[in-house]
Amino acid sequence: MQALAGRVLTARGWALARVVFDARIQALEPLSEAPRRYVLPGFIDLHVHGGGGGDAMEGAAGVRRLARFHARHGTTALLATTVTAPPAAVVRALEGIRAVARRPGAGEARVLGAHLEGPFIHPERLGAQPPYPHPPDLDWARRFLEAGPVRVVTLAPELGGALELVRFLAGRGVRVQLGHSTAGFVEARAALEAGAVGFTHLFNAMGGLMARAPGLVGAAFARGRWAEVIPDGRHVHPGALLAAFRAIPGVYGVTDAVAAAGMPEGRYPLGARTVVRRGDGVYLEDGTLAGSVLTMAEALRNLVRLGLSLAEAAWRLSALPAAYLGVRDRGRVRAGVWADLVVLDEALRVREVYVEGRRVR
């Protein structure tokens, strides 16, 4: 049995407490005094392509590499995220993700499944995605679900056959998100009524909110319950983030990190594309943003700089994504859940990380 004492973020708020745990949290014991540090639920990243040089499209080895890298920065669970590729390549990537999800290794964030970002996206809204969009296809969708644990799918609702695909996926418990899309308000509303539930990297690779053309962002503001955002300071203006937090109840943070995260400047894979890290950004050769080098720990600090309380920032990176995914035994600090914990010092730097009770070295 282990214990961590500090200012603990519980489901009821902050408490001076000792967290007693093995693989799961056994108890929270109140204290009158505690070390000057924060104990938070581990971060849950539902959109991450890579990190530490590893790319989810490379198979199990790439997934393990990204899971190890992000665990060191407080991410205790994640969805390994694919990019648009020929369907056979997507199947191979999903098989690798399934292998890691079934047999997690020491020091790795737990892979809860896959986020399929494409290939059912609009060719005019690829962003940095490789140029392999594919029309909505139920046969390939079935094959994808057979190949790996697909939990989230991003698609463009305006494509022919998209609504049928939304109904198919939602009927099998997959969370369907709208993104990489030219859809207008009416098309987005139809997808939400068909069973779509979220929006992928809100504001990016979609039409903006205009007075007479509210677009996908307008649909998210008017009808959305859930949306992911990338709080890296590059993808979304701080004012737009604050507007989203006010308009949409369930806005949670993701990294959209790629293999270049944690690596020096240079060239790195993003599926079939090569992207370039320059400074703290990642780009295609033409200057298009190509994911990020963000970690969830830096996302937390960015949200606090934006004006959110530490408790709300942590909630948007842990409890909220857990709730979105329907995961009840992660994302909170309470008795009975997995001991996924992050210890921060007073400057909000990561000092210790535990995944299912095992310290990440």
TrEMBL record:
Residues 38-360 form the Amidohydrolase-related domain. Substrate binds at A128, N204, A205, R212, H235, L289, A290, G291. GO terms for molecular function: metal ion binding; N-acetylglucosamine-6-phosphate deacetylase activity. The active site is at D256 (proton donor/acceptor). Zn(2+) binds at E117, H180, H201. Gene3D superfamilies: Metal-dependent hydrolases, Urease, subunit C, domain 1. Belongs to the metallo-dependent hydrolases superfamily. NagA family. It is an enzyme of class 3 (hydrolase). One of its GO terms (biological process) is N-acetylglucosamine catabolic process. NCBIfam families: nagA (TIGR00221). Its cofactor is a divalent metal cation. Its EC number is 3.5.1.25. It comes from the Bacteria. Pfam families: Amidohydro_1. Signal peptide: none annotated. Binds 1 divalent metal cation per subunit. InterPro entries: Amidohydro-rel, GlcNAc_6-P_deAcase, Metal-dep_hydrolase_composite, Metal_Hydrolase. Keywords: Carbohydrate metabolism, Hydrolase, Metal-binding. This is N-acetylglucosamine-6-phosphate deacetylase.
